[in-house]
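Let's sit down with a protein and look at its sequence and fold side by side. Once you have written the record down, we can walk along the chain together.
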Amino acid sequence: PPRGETETRLAALWAAVLGLPEPGTIARSDSFFERGGDSILALQLVTRARQAGLTLTPRDLFTHQSLAALAAHAEAHGAPPGHEAVDVTLDPAREAGPVPLTPIQRWFLDSPVPNRRHWNQAVLLVPRTPLDPDCLAEALAAVEAAHPALRLRFAQDGHGTWAQTCRAPAMPPPLWRRAAADAPALAVLAAQAQTSLDLAEGPVWRAVLVDPAPDGAQRLLLVAHHLVVDAMSWRILIHDLAAALAGRPLAPPPTSFPGWARSLDVLARHPGYAGRRQAWLAGWLAGRLADRQAGGPCHTAALRPLRPDAPQVESAQTEIADSLDADTTDAFLRRAGRPYRARPDEILLTALSVALARRGGGTAVGVTLERHGRDADALADVLAEPLADALAEPLADAPDGPPLPRHDLSRTVGWFTTLVPLRLDPLGGEPDLPPDAAALGAALGRALCRVKEARRARPQPDLSHDLLRHCAEPDLRDRIAQLPEPGILLNYLGQIDPDRADPDAPFALAPESAGPMRDPQSPAGAELTLTALVRGGRLHLAWRFSPDRHDATAIAALAHDTRHTLEALIAHCADPDTPRRPTPADLPLARLDQPGLDAILADARAAGTLDPDSLADLYPLTPLQEGLLFHARLAPEDQAYRNQVRLDLEPLDPDRFAQAVRATLARHDVLRTAILAPADGPPLQAVLHAVPDPLTRLDWTGRTPDEKPDGTPRQDSLATRLAALAAAERAKPFDLAQAPLLRLALVRTGPARHHLVLTVHHLILDGWSTARLVAEVLARYRGQAPEPVTGRFADYLAWLARQPRSTAERFWRDALAGLDAPTRLAGTFDAPGAPERQRPAGHGEVRHRVPPAAAGRLLARARAAHLTLNTCVQAAWAQLVAARTGQRRVAFGTTVAGRPAELPGAETVLGLFINTLPVIVELDPARPLGAWLAWVQAVNLGLREHGHLPLAAVQRLAGPAGAGGLFDSLVVFENYPVDAALAAARRGRYGEGHKDGEGARDGVRDGDRADPHSLRLGPAIVAETTHYPVTLVVHPDAAPDGTQLALRLSYAADRLTAEDAQALLDDLAARLDALAEADLDRPLGMLASPLSPADRAVVLSANATARAYP
């Protein structure tokens, strides 16, 4: 069931929109679309969520499909901007002036419509309480002021070119007050209203208060020209009318219709659109040209007119009605989408296309989808980066503010419909379906996968086709107009169910007709139109066609075949034994085709590592992840990259702590990630909906005390046993195909005292993320709300995929120029003297602390010279490496944070963002120290700007120097280590970074002593190793008397001795001290090398010549 306030509120909204009986029936892992949602209901949910104070967009429902993920996203973004109502009538003329025509408006105005002003939409309502005419007039005026589309006017110039303008609100509002004594009188009145609109002078909408109506009650007829409204607009209008009648000010839509139209106009005319447009056009035209040459799927046998000269007008249309029963409809909405992650409209489209293909001998078919067109997010996804800057400037002064990528059309009144032609091959070239029921279901499942992929894999959003066809330059529009259009149009309207209407709403739908909405001689459009909607708990299918042009028997047979195919497909999909089969469109970052995806999932299922039912996402590895995976495979027993954090916690409630761990795992994708290694193709990381609990509890109370009675330590002391447990945890390899890739051991060592051992593979977490993980668990334990996560690790993978490699490769070629050999620091030491087979295995570690006084001098020097501490450390290390190797140009590794500043929310996401890259430093003896340090800092800034390139690619660019690796030593500068996270946790400040002078490493009471969930946190014991022979980790560490630098050097025991490693640290400390004191104008070559501790002792001894004389 839902957890927390936001999930509970969202579940209630889901239940209301989807018509579910109880919010408690919605699971946290449920998908809105798998529970019966569609794109139209998504817009309704967004509107209701905004009214409830939750910030959501339609795209969010596709990106964060589970209830838990959507709630977390909503929490991260807070209340929507402008959530409090604003009385927009204070500035009624803010949108007045010319408004560019949108694609669908151009389509209508360019079409040969004889009585153009009579092409309407309308609703006839029954007020639940009597309406006062004057109050109604005021409410209608407020609605018109809030929605500029209702104030549009249309006119042609002398050349026949149409244009529209937005006027200020009219007074009085377009309201008729009439009476109707009987049903015929009401029908006449409705017909008069339908023909009363005027595109040029207005009104373009009208309200008619019928008082009394034939039954003695009132009726309210609302009529609007289709140029200014669509089906989605009516919910908005009726909601706002009710609000205005109740005296509430109206909240303006996030984007007005004129603002949207102006954005599209800028987009269609901008040169930056050309490149994208050509790519879209090439992909879209390919199939259409083939269709025209072959007689194409647009003219299947079922849709070829028998009498093509017969008029195709509204008055000649007839309708064949069909429907599914309530149980099948419920399965269609609630269960059929689950195995293939399909939406209801995709299931319906599959049934229709299969029926068409079977009647055409298994060939491809053409279908035009009529869509609501409010997919501004989808268009923004494609166009935002190349056009955002271009759009921002011309729209900077527009009333709606932000450019296209930020438009929200969920509350905008207007006509947004798009017409999307599709070419579908549902049977994959097979002539027919198998007769066997099981085989039929499987074949229909494969057809659904093909149709779903064709629908979602279009190279452009739905709107872009209409932009090309109606808003491009004339010659391109003419080329597109010559291509064949599909003969059938599918319009799925979703759930339009009056039984789910709010009983407290001020209006109900009237039983009478709203009148003829179109002129009888208006063109009917497609040869065959299938309109589908759910009403009264049943899916209704209405087939409209002209019997003067088509054989009614053939159309009836097609309708029967479609319903039969739909029922069979629903039965297959709703069968609980049908295995789940995601398609490539569900997992776009994986870049797989269907056979490749099927093979990966089949292998994982056979190995018992992954059940497709639990798969939430699938995407590639980052560059560093690929490298770490290589080393994990190369040496599976090696402890490298199995990182560990240990600390004492007291007093601790273990159940509460376990709950905090589970909640943290549920929130972060990377903590539920496994690594898949397909036999063919690159490795992938799989995110699971849920993972086993990684927490193990041990009770070691009552064990042998640490000391003997005489005070001497025992060999089996608690500290020894805890260290042995930690060593065993690090020695235990992770099965990378089994999530989660972390383990926690919680050892009870006293009545309320526990020792935590957290072991995590570096494949999923960098140092920043490990620190934040520990901090979040502790914050949850304390009852604090964790910092909102405003992004996903998948967003970073998508960002990486968009980065051009050419610029980065040029940078690295320049940086690598002149490096003719790798740098091998470990090679300057004699290997330990034992024979190779007896050499010590694993890694050792030595530590050194630069005391506050010396660290303070270095920090002051860095600040005065506008340098970072990291620059000073790298400069000292470069000097050390050059002195040891004798190379003037040296290379060593460093880690870059990898969290792009331009990626929203990256700092809140857990994952492995860092990358390891070479720092290539030339030590020119003639260069002044200050200028050289500034150059080293510039090198660092440059490599961070191009830090997304994989290390393997950089080393390939180095040629022979990169063979076998450019370097064997790594320098890591930690700005937010675990110690800092714990210091912030001790202060009760989750997510706070390290501050000088705060956060001692010893145990400190956490927060208020009266807090029942306060903790004393012991010092953190951190263990980290890499595969490099030498790894230096540096981080500032707060001390009571200032900041000290903590230096930790990890070394390969088979390459260096502990004495060698300690000598390196001592040398580095001496060089850091020398940098703090050296003359910045002095050339590098004239700087004296610091003495080693042994040499310094000799010098001090030799200089100790002072003697006491009598």
The first strand starts at residue 97 and ends at 99. Residues 552-574 form the longest helix (23 residues).
